Amino acid sequence: MNNRYIFSSESVGEGHPDKVADTISDAVLDACLAQDRFSRVACETYVKSNVAIVGGEITTKAKLDFVAIARKAIREIGYVNDDDVFHADKVFVNVIVTQQSPDIAQGVDAKKAKGKKTAKQGAGDQGLMFGYACNETRELMPAPIMFAHRLGRELTRIRKAGGAPWLRPDAKSQVSVVYENDLPVAISNVVISTQHSAEVEHREIEKFCIEKVIKKVLPAKLLNSKTEFLINPTGRFVVGGPQGDTGLTGRKIIVDTYGGMGRHGGGAFSGKDPTKVDRSAAYMARWVAKNIVAAGLATRCELQFAYAIGHPNPVSVHVETFGTNRVSNDRIVRAVNRVFSFQPSDIIDQLNLRRPIYGKTTNYGHFGKADKDLTWEATDKVAALKRALK
Protein backbone atom coordinates (compact mmCIF):
# COMPACT_ATOMS: atom_id res chain seq x y z
CA MET A 1 0.00 0.00 0.00
CA ASN A 2 1.31 3.46 -0.94
CA ASN A 3 1.41 5.55 2.24
CA ARG A 4 1.17 9.16 1.00
CA TYR A 5 0.88 12.22 3.24
CA ILE A 6 2.05 15.83 3.61
CA PHE A 7 3.96 17.09 6.65
CA SER A 8 4.67 20.77 7.31
CA SER A 9 7.18 22.52 9.57
CA GLU A 10 7.93 26.18 10.20
CA SER A 11 10.94 28.26 11.13
CA VAL A 12 11.27 31.87 12.22
CA GLY A 13 13.96 34.49 11.65
CA GLU A 14 16.21 36.12 14.23
CA GLY A 15 14.00 39.20 14.27
CA HIS A 16 10.81 37.34 15.17
CA PRO A 17 9.74 38.73 18.57
CA ASP A 18 10.01 35.37 20.34
CA LYS A 19 13.48 34.82 18.89
CA VAL A 20 14.54 38.32 19.97
CA ALA A 21 13.61 37.26 23.50
CA ASP A 22 15.44 33.92 23.15
CA THR A 23 18.54 35.68 21.79
CA ILE A 24 18.71 38.08 24.74
CA SER A 25 18.21 35.25 27.25
CA ASP A 26 20.96 33.13 25.70
CA ALA A 27 23.25 36.17 25.52
CA VAL A 28 22.82 36.63 29.29
CA LEU A 29 23.55 32.92 29.82
CA ASP A 30 26.72 33.05 27.73
CA ALA A 31 27.89 36.19 29.53
CA CYS A 32 27.49 34.38 32.86
CA LEU A 33 29.31 31.22 31.72
CA ALA A 34 32.14 33.25 30.19
CA GLN A 35 33.03 34.52 33.69
CA ASP A 36 31.70 31.74 35.91
CA ARG A 37 31.22 28.30 34.37
CA PHE A 38 29.19 27.15 37.38
CA SER A 39 26.59 29.90 37.01
CA ARG A 40 22.97 28.93 37.63
CA VAL A 41 20.86 30.77 35.09
CA ALA A 42 17.17 30.81 34.32
CA CYS A 43 16.72 33.96 32.25
CA GLU A 44 13.40 34.97 30.70
CA THR A 45 12.92 37.95 28.39
CA TYR A 46 9.79 39.83 27.29
CA VAL A 47 9.85 42.31 24.41
CA LYS A 48 7.12 44.64 23.17
CA SER A 49 7.18 47.95 21.31
CA ASN A 50 10.25 49.82 22.65
CA VAL A 51 10.57 47.82 25.90
CA ALA A 52 12.61 44.73 26.88
CA ILE A 53 12.18 43.13 30.30
CA VAL A 54 14.94 40.77 31.40
CA GLY A 55 13.98 38.67 34.40
CA GLY A 56 14.62 35.37 36.10
CA GLU A 57 16.76 33.65 38.70
CA ILE A 58 20.53 33.93 38.34
CA THR A 59 23.20 32.87 40.83
CA THR A 60 26.66 33.73 39.54
CA LYS A 61 29.99 35.33 40.35
CA ALA A 62 29.87 37.10 36.98
CA LYS A 63 29.52 40.88 36.85
CA LEU A 64 26.91 41.70 34.23
CA ASP A 65 25.62 44.79 32.47
CA PHE A 66 22.21 43.46 31.49
CA VAL A 67 21.30 46.60 29.55
CA ALA A 68 24.46 46.44 27.42
CA ILE A 69 23.98 42.70 26.80
CA ALA A 70 20.41 43.24 25.62
CA ARG A 71 21.31 46.17 23.37
CA LYS A 72 24.19 44.25 21.78
CA ALA A 73 21.94 41.26 21.05
CA ILE A 74 19.26 43.48 19.50
CA ARG A 75 21.87 45.30 17.41
CA GLU A 76 23.32 42.05 16.06
CA ILE A 77 19.84 40.90 15.04
CA GLY A 78 19.49 44.06 12.96
CA TYR A 79 17.04 46.34 14.74
CA VAL A 80 19.00 49.49 13.88
CA ASN A 81 16.85 51.13 11.21
CA ASP A 82 15.49 54.61 11.84
CA ASP A 83 11.95 53.40 11.11
CA ASP A 84 12.16 50.71 13.84
CA VAL A 85 10.18 51.44 17.01
CA PHE A 86 12.18 48.61 18.58
CA HIS A 87 15.73 49.95 18.15
CA ALA A 88 18.94 48.71 19.77
CA ASP A 89 19.97 52.17 20.95
CA LYS A 90 16.54 53.38 22.06
CA VAL A 91 14.86 50.41 23.71
CA PHE A 92 14.06 50.68 27.42
CA VAL A 93 15.60 47.69 29.22
CA ASN A 94 14.11 46.73 32.59
CA VAL A 95 15.91 44.15 34.75
CA ILE A 96 14.09 42.01 37.31
CA VAL A 97 16.52 39.30 38.45
CA THR A 98 16.86 37.42 41.74
CA GLN A 99 19.01 34.45 42.81
CA GLN A 100 18.02 30.82 42.40
CA SER A 101 15.75 29.48 45.12
CA PRO A 102 17.85 27.77 47.84
CA ASP A 103 15.33 24.91 47.89
CA ILE A 104 16.04 24.18 44.21
CA ALA A 105 19.77 24.79 44.66
CA GLN A 106 20.15 22.11 47.33
CA GLY A 107 18.60 19.57 44.98
CA VAL A 108 21.02 20.44 42.19
CA ASP A 109 24.15 20.80 44.33
CA ALA A 110 26.38 17.72 44.54
CA LYS A 111 26.31 17.55 48.34
CA LYS A 112 24.15 16.30 51.16
CA ALA A 113 21.15 18.29 52.36
CA LYS A 114 18.38 17.68 54.85
CA GLY A 115 15.63 15.63 53.22
CA LYS A 116 17.72 14.88 50.11
CA LYS A 117 18.35 11.17 49.59
CA THR A 118 21.68 11.47 47.79
CA ALA A 119 24.81 13.63 47.79
CA LYS A 120 24.99 13.52 43.99
CA GLN A 121 23.99 16.37 41.69
CA GLY A 122 20.32 16.06 40.94
CA ALA A 123 18.11 17.26 38.14
CA GLY A 124 17.07 20.91 38.35
CA ASP A 125 13.44 20.00 37.83
CA GLN A 126 11.13 17.12 37.07
CA GLY A 127 10.05 16.64 33.48
CA LEU A 128 10.38 14.63 30.30
CA MET A 129 12.67 15.31 27.38
CA PHE A 130 12.78 13.89 23.86
CA GLY A 131 15.46 13.49 21.22
CA TYR A 132 14.99 12.50 17.59
CA ALA A 133 16.98 11.59 14.49
CA CYS A 134 16.19 10.19 11.04
CA ASN A 135 18.05 9.62 7.78
CA GLU A 136 16.03 12.03 5.60
CA THR A 137 18.78 14.67 5.38
CA ARG A 138 22.56 14.78 5.74
CA GLU A 139 22.05 16.33 9.19
CA LEU A 140 19.97 13.27 10.22
CA MET A 141 17.03 15.60 10.77
CA PRO A 142 13.47 15.69 9.36
CA ALA A 143 13.35 17.33 5.93
CA PRO A 144 10.51 19.84 6.55
CA ILE A 145 12.17 21.63 9.46
CA MET A 146 15.62 21.63 7.85
CA PHE A 147 14.20 23.10 4.64
CA ALA A 148 12.35 25.79 6.60
CA HIS A 149 15.55 26.67 8.47
CA ARG A 150 17.49 26.93 5.19
CA LEU A 151 15.05 29.56 3.93
CA GLY A 152 15.38 31.61 7.11
CA ARG A 153 19.16 31.43 7.14
CA GLU A 154 19.39 32.58 3.53
CA LEU A 155 17.02 35.50 4.11
CA THR A 156 19.15 36.58 7.07
CA ARG A 157 22.41 36.14 5.16
CA ILE A 158 21.19 38.33 2.30
CA ARG A 159 19.77 40.95 4.67
CA LYS A 160 22.94 41.26 6.75
CA ALA A 161 25.10 41.35 3.61
CA GLY A 162 23.04 44.27 2.27
CA GLY A 163 21.80 42.29 -0.73
CA ALA A 164 18.23 43.55 -0.37
CA PRO A 165 18.11 46.88 1.52
CA TRP A 166 14.33 46.68 1.94
CA LEU A 167 14.52 43.48 4.03
CA ARG A 168 13.82 43.85 7.76
CA PRO A 169 14.62 41.42 10.61
CA ASP A 170 11.24 39.77 11.25
CA ALA A 171 10.50 36.72 9.09
CA LYS A 172 8.85 33.30 9.05
CA SER A 173 9.09 30.34 6.69
CA GLN A 174 7.15 27.11 6.28
CA VAL A 175 7.65 24.08 4.05
CA SER A 176 5.18 21.28 3.30
CA VAL A 177 6.82 18.03 2.18
CA VAL A 178 5.04 15.21 0.38
CA TYR A 179 5.93 11.74 1.70
CA GLU A 180 5.40 8.39 0.03
CA ASN A 181 6.13 5.34 2.16
CA ASP A 182 7.79 7.66 4.69
CA LEU A 183 10.24 9.08 2.13
CA PRO A 184 10.17 12.75 1.01
CA VAL A 185 9.32 12.88 -2.71
CA ALA A 186 8.19 16.48 -3.34
CA ILE A 187 7.54 19.89 -1.82
CA SER A 188 3.91 20.89 -2.18
CA ASN A 189 3.97 24.33 -0.60
CA VAL A 190 6.46 26.99 0.52
CA VAL A 191 5.46 29.98 2.63
CA ILE A 192 7.70 32.97 3.33
CA SER A 193 6.57 36.04 5.24
CA THR A 194 9.28 38.66 5.54
CA GLN A 195 9.12 42.13 7.02
CA HIS A 196 10.06 44.87 4.58
CA SER A 197 10.37 48.62 4.25
CA ALA A 198 7.29 50.53 3.13
CA GLU A 199 8.39 51.53 -0.38
CA VAL A 200 9.06 48.08 -1.90
CA GLU A 201 6.38 46.53 -4.12
CA HIS A 202 4.89 43.12 -3.34
CA ARG A 203 5.78 41.73 -6.77
CA GLU A 204 9.48 42.52 -6.15
CA ILE A 205 9.38 40.74 -2.80
CA GLU A 206 7.65 37.75 -4.36
CA LYS A 207 10.13 37.44 -7.24
CA PHE A 208 13.10 37.87 -4.89
CA CYS A 209 11.92 35.19 -2.43
CA ILE A 210 11.18 32.64 -5.15
CA GLU A 211 14.25 33.17 -7.33
CA LYS A 212 16.92 34.25 -4.82
CA VAL A 213 15.89 32.24 -1.76
CA ILE A 214 13.58 29.28 -2.40
CA LYS A 215 15.09 28.02 -5.66
CA LYS A 216 18.59 28.61 -4.32
CA VAL A 217 18.38 26.59 -1.10
CA LEU A 218 15.66 23.95 -1.57
CA PRO A 219 16.35 20.74 -3.54
CA ALA A 220 15.40 21.30 -7.18
CA LYS A 221 14.31 17.67 -7.53
CA LEU A 222 11.57 18.24 -4.92
CA LEU A 223 10.18 21.40 -6.55
CA ASN A 224 7.81 20.94 -9.48
CA SER A 225 5.03 22.66 -11.42
CA LYS A 226 2.55 21.84 -8.66
CA THR A 227 4.60 23.45 -5.90
CA GLU A 228 2.75 26.49 -4.54
CA PHE A 229 4.67 29.57 -3.40
CA LEU A 230 2.94 31.89 -0.91
CA ILE A 231 5.05 35.00 -0.34
CA ASN A 232 3.81 37.58 2.19
CA PRO A 233 0.28 36.24 1.70
CA THR A 234 -1.37 39.20 3.48
CA GLY A 235 0.14 41.49 0.83
CA ARG A 236 2.03 43.72 3.29
CA PHE A 237 4.40 43.19 6.24
CA VAL A 238 5.87 46.55 7.23
CA VAL A 239 4.97 46.57 10.93
CA GLY A 240 6.80 43.64 12.49
CA GLY A 241 9.11 42.58 15.27
CA PRO A 242 8.25 43.61 18.82
CA GLN A 243 6.35 46.61 17.44
CA GLY A 244 3.84 44.31 15.79
CA ASP A 245 3.76 41.44 18.28
CA THR A 246 4.88 40.46 21.76
CA GLY A 247 7.95 38.24 22.21
CA LEU A 248 8.63 35.81 25.03
CA THR A 249 11.50 33.44 25.75
CA GLY A 250 10.72 29.79 25.12
CA ARG A 251 7.68 30.17 22.90
CA LYS A 252 9.18 28.56 19.77
CA ILE A 253 10.00 25.11 21.16
CA ILE A 254 8.88 23.20 18.04
CA VAL A 255 10.95 25.47 15.79
CA ASP A 256 13.87 24.83 18.16
CA THR A 257 13.59 21.05 17.88
CA TYR A 258 12.14 18.84 15.14
CA GLY A 259 9.35 20.86 13.57
CA GLY A 260 6.73 18.60 15.13
CA MET A 261 8.13 15.40 13.59
CA GLY A 262 9.50 14.29 16.96
CA ARG A 263 7.64 14.71 20.21
CA HIS A 264 8.43 17.43 22.74
CA GLY A 265 8.32 17.32 26.53
CA GLY A 266 7.26 20.97 26.82
CA GLY A 267 10.37 22.51 28.37
CA ALA A 268 12.07 25.41 26.61
CA PHE A 269 15.83 25.75 26.15
CA SER A 270 16.96 29.36 25.85
CA GLY A 271 18.25 31.18 28.92
CA LYS A 272 18.80 27.97 30.91
CA ASP A 273 22.18 26.73 32.14
CA PRO A 274 23.00 23.02 31.67
CA THR A 275 21.93 21.96 35.16
CA LYS A 276 18.42 22.41 33.78
CA VAL A 277 17.58 19.06 32.24
CA ASP A 278 14.97 20.72 30.02
CA ARG A 279 17.96 21.76 27.97
CA SER A 280 20.84 19.40 28.72
CA ALA A 281 18.84 16.16 28.64
CA ALA A 282 17.17 17.19 25.37
CA TYR A 283 20.64 17.70 23.91
CA MET A 284 21.67 14.33 25.33
CA ALA A 285 18.66 12.63 23.79
CA ARG A 286 19.49 14.11 20.38
CA TRP A 287 23.10 12.87 20.70
CA VAL A 288 22.00 9.33 21.51
CA ALA A 289 19.29 9.22 18.83
CA LYS A 290 21.66 10.58 16.17
CA ASN A 291 24.31 7.99 17.00
CA ILE A 292 21.76 5.18 16.83
CA VAL A 293 20.72 6.26 13.33
CA ALA A 294 24.32 6.93 12.25
CA ALA A 295 25.23 3.41 13.43
CA GLY A 296 22.56 1.95 11.15
CA LEU A 297 20.61 0.47 14.05
CA ALA A 298 17.44 2.24 12.83
CA THR A 299 16.48 4.80 10.20
CA ARG A 300 14.27 6.74 12.65
CA CYS A 301 14.80 6.96 16.38
CA GLU A 302 13.23 8.84 19.26
CA LEU A 303 14.42 8.80 22.87
CA GLN A 304 12.55 9.89 25.97
CA PHE A 305 14.04 10.58 29.38
CA ALA A 306 12.16 11.56 32.54
CA TYR A 307 13.60 13.05 35.73
CA ALA A 308 12.58 13.94 39.29
CA ILE A 309 13.86 17.19 40.80
CA GLY A 310 16.93 16.66 42.97
CA HIS A 311 17.33 13.02 41.87
CA PRO A 312 20.48 12.02 39.94
CA ASN A 313 19.15 9.18 37.80
CA PRO A 314 16.41 9.36 35.18
CA VAL A 315 13.22 7.65 36.29
CA SER A 316 12.84 6.24 32.76
CA VAL A 317 14.73 5.82 29.47
CA HIS A 318 12.66 4.83 26.43
CA VAL A 319 13.73 4.16 22.83
CA GLU A 320 11.24 4.18 19.93
CA THR A 321 12.37 3.21 16.41
CA PHE A 322 8.96 3.16 14.67
CA GLY A 323 9.56 -0.28 13.20
CA THR A 324 12.73 0.82 11.38
CA ASN A 325 15.14 -0.95 13.76
CA ARG A 326 17.69 -3.46 12.41
CA VAL A 327 18.11 -5.08 15.85
CA SER A 328 15.59 -5.36 18.66
CA ASN A 329 14.71 -2.26 20.68
CA ASP A 330 15.62 -4.16 23.86
CA ARG A 331 19.16 -4.68 22.57
CA ILE A 332 19.40 -1.03 21.54
CA VAL A 333 18.31 0.11 25.02
CA ARG A 334 20.88 -2.15 26.67
CA ALA A 335 23.61 -0.84 24.38
CA VAL A 336 22.59 2.76 25.04
CA ASN A 337 22.78 2.26 28.81
CA ARG A 338 26.24 0.69 28.48
CA VAL A 339 27.63 3.53 26.37
CA PHE A 340 25.98 6.63 27.86
CA SER A 341 25.29 7.95 31.36
CA PHE A 342 22.17 10.02 31.89
CA GLN A 343 22.90 11.52 35.31
CA PRO A 344 22.75 15.34 34.99
CA SER A 345 26.39 15.84 36.05
CA ASP A 346 27.54 13.19 33.56
CA ILE A 347 25.52 14.75 30.74
CA ILE A 348 27.25 18.07 31.41
CA ASP A 349 30.68 16.40 31.38
CA GLN A 350 30.07 14.17 28.35
CA LEU A 351 28.84 17.08 26.23
CA ASN A 352 31.11 19.73 27.80
CA LEU A 353 28.19 22.06 28.43
CA ARG A 354 29.67 24.57 30.89
CA ARG A 355 30.82 26.89 28.08
CA PRO A 356 29.43 30.07 26.51
CA ILE A 357 28.21 28.29 23.36
CA TYR A 358 24.49 28.85 23.57
CA GLY A 359 24.20 31.86 21.30
CA LYS A 360 25.03 29.42 18.48
CA THR A 361 21.92 27.41 19.27
CA THR A 362 19.30 30.14 19.52
CA ASN A 363 18.27 30.58 15.89
CA TYR A 364 17.36 28.06 13.17
CA GLY A 365 17.17 25.09 15.48
CA HIS A 366 19.23 23.67 18.31
CA PHE A 367 19.82 20.52 16.26
CA GLY A 368 21.23 19.72 12.85
CA LYS A 369 24.06 22.28 12.82
CA ALA A 370 27.62 21.43 11.77
CA ASP A 371 29.55 23.13 14.58
CA LYS A 372 32.12 21.34 16.73
CA ASP A 373 31.03 23.34 19.79
CA LEU A 374 27.58 21.72 19.57
CA THR A 375 28.82 18.38 20.85
CA TRP A 376 25.42 16.68 20.75
CA GLU A 377 25.66 16.68 16.95
CA ALA A 378 28.76 14.45 16.94
CA THR A 379 28.45 10.83 15.77
CA ASP A 380 31.39 9.76 17.89
CA LYS A 381 29.67 6.86 19.68
CA VAL A 382 28.79 4.78 16.62
CA ALA A 383 31.60 2.28 17.15
CA ALA A 384 30.91 2.02 20.89
CA LEU A 385 27.23 1.27 20.25
CA LYS A 386 28.11 -1.45 17.77
CA ARG A 387 30.54 -3.00 20.24
CA ALA A 388 27.94 -2.86 23.00
CA LEU A 389 25.54 -4.91 20.89
CA LYS A 390 27.93 -7.87 20.71
Please write out the topology.
Blueprint: E1 4-12, H1 17-35, E2 40-48, E3 51-59, H2 66-77, E4 92-98, H3 102-108, E5 127-134, H4 143-160, E6 167-180, E7 183-196, H5 202-217, E8 228-231, H6 241-244, E9 247-248, H7 253-256, H8 277-294, E10 300-307, E11 316-320, H9 329-339, H10 344-351, H11 382-388
Parallel strand pairs: 3-4, 7-8
Antiparallel strand pairs: 1-6, 2-3, 2-9, 5-10, 6-7, 10-11
How far apart, in Å, are the first and last alpha carbons? 36 Å
With helices defined by DSSP (H or I, 4 residues minimum), what is the helix count? Answer: 11
- What share of residues is helical? 25-40%
Structural class estimated from helices and strands = alpha+beta
Oligomer: single chain
Give the overall average pLDDT: 93
- Can you count the beta strands? 11
Radius of gyration: 22 Å
What features would you describe in this structure?
The model has no long low-confidence stretch (mean pLDDT 93). Helix 4 (143-160) packs across helix 5. This protein is of the alpha+beta class and 390 residues long. The radius of gyration is 22 Å and the shape is flat. The strands form three sheets. It has a four-stranded mixed β-sheet with strand order 1-6-7-8. A four-stranded mixed β-sheet has the order 4-3-2-9. The protein has eleven helices and eleven strands. It is 32% helix and 23% strand.
